[in-house]
Amino acid sequence: MPVSLKLQKRLAASVLKCGQRKIWLDPNEINEIALANSRRNISRLHRDGLIIKKPSVVHSRARVSLRNEAKRKGRHTGIGKRRGTANARLPFKVLWMRRCRVLRRLLKKMRDAKKIDKHIYHSLYVLAKGNEFKNKTVLIEKIHELKAVNVQEKALAEQAEARKGRAKARLERRAARESKKAADAEAAVQAS
């Protein structure tokens, strides 16, 4: 009948602070180990190398890191590998927030650089909030368009102002001419 080393295994597990499955008892020294019936004896056997604590089993992440590296390149992410909805994988709200922040940042930068005035800024800010612009490029196009309109309006206003000035000068000249003519007529009447 083989010798039972159940007690020794239990004591060794307690002494070495590990589970019983991690305890290795030297199969060539069974008789000597069987005589050890106290913790002190067990720790002596451990010092002598008859009882050893097995190393913990390696749970390698090498394969995982390799796969993650491939995923970063876009492998293993096709339609067949997707479990969640598009919204669950990358929420629409997150996309919206990113886009909104990009547009608002651009508007603020342009206003601070005096490229747009506060009125254009506000109107575009409200439009951006209303989902008017798909991306930054579209917003920049709109800014150029508005600035062109502003320049045109300013030019037209200046032209109108100049026209008004010329008309006023014409009227003044005419009035002066007429007053001079009236004065000449009056002088002629007095002379005769």
Counting DSSP H or I runs of 4 or more residues, the number of helices is 8
The strands making up the biggest β-sheet line up spatially as 1-2
How would you characterize the largest beta sheet? Answer: 2 strands, antiparallel
Q: Which residues sit in consecutive blocks of at least 5 with pLDDT less than 50?
A: none
Tell me the Rg in angstroms: 47 Å
String of helices and strands: HEHHEHHHHH
Number of strands: 2
Broad structural category: mainly alpha
Cα distance spanning the termini = 167 Å
User: What would you call the shape?
Assistant: rod-shaped
Q: Mean pLDDT, as a whole number?
A: 95
Helix content: 55-70%
